[in-house]
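As a next step, the fold was encoded as tokens, giving this record:
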Amino acid sequence: MLFCCLCAGISCSKSGSGDSAPGTLSFRFTGNPRELAKVSQELPDTNDFLITVTDESGAVVFDDIYCNLPEVLEVEPGSYGIRVRSEDFSGIEFSSPQYGDEQCVVVPPAGVMTVELGCRQINSGIRLDVAPAFLTEYPRGVLFLRTGDGKLMYSYSEKRIAYFSPGPVSLILDNDGEETVLLTRTVVSQEILTLKVSVAAGSSQSAKGISISLDTARVWTNETYVLGDEGSKGSTYEDALTVSQALASIGKEDVWVSGFIVGGDLTSANASFDPPFKSASNLLLGSRSSVSSRDNCIAVQLPSGDVRDALNLADHPEMLGRLVCIHGDIESSYYGLVGLKSVSDFVLK
């Protein structure tokens, strides 16, 4: 996926439209993020992603987390830059992969634009595999990774990946105060390299004996993530499925699902998103507190007992908009929607 045109401090070009009839923007992530096979780290919940929308003059239209984004954003016709990221990242840091997407879209007069947001790694990474003999030959030596954004010390025993913005990165040996650049490599977005650093015996007086090789078994590029196949995700409330993940996980049992309580009073064709509510037996979970379309929700059956007593909107309208984790079985249909049934527990967040 190529970036369209949005960079920090750069806005999309003007659309040239003279019609002032408002249009609308809506957003959704394509696919369901899953754990990357070669990295033992799960993608963060897209509900917590930071999203910034700017108009063609560079003015900020929206800047907050994704779950606080209105379901439909009314805007003037023109070009808009959209940037989503799992976290703000700058410099060079350990264990800080950044995921997201950047796009530029044009909203026509009175038009509707749905933005399909991808989720891919947008920074780069390097991991060093330092041979044991290196410490023996260079007892006072220190390795650093240096980019245009800073420098990071990489100890001989370090196992983590160092992440940085795409571009050139240098591996530096500081041997008792004398710095030597061992390697400079340009690493692109999504690329993670493992570099093997070894040394020939008796070479401690110079860097000539040092060899650096690329471990080709540990080079990978993280393409756009595909939803589904969440493995053990949902087994605890701390690692609950999001609503979008739950919608793609029909048949899973004894799982936790996390979402915002957005409505209730379900029928086979309708739902209520505003109080007062009449039914205590069901509610709707949405990916954002602003969701107002039942088709984007998962329906929850509230059995009689503690869960219904605590969460039902008829008795507790103050629960509207609350983020909650609910434990149950995901079934194909409940009032015409994917449903969460056999609910046995909940945790308010």
Q: What stands out?
A: The longest helix spans residues 132-137. Helices lie at 132-137, 243-247, 306-311.
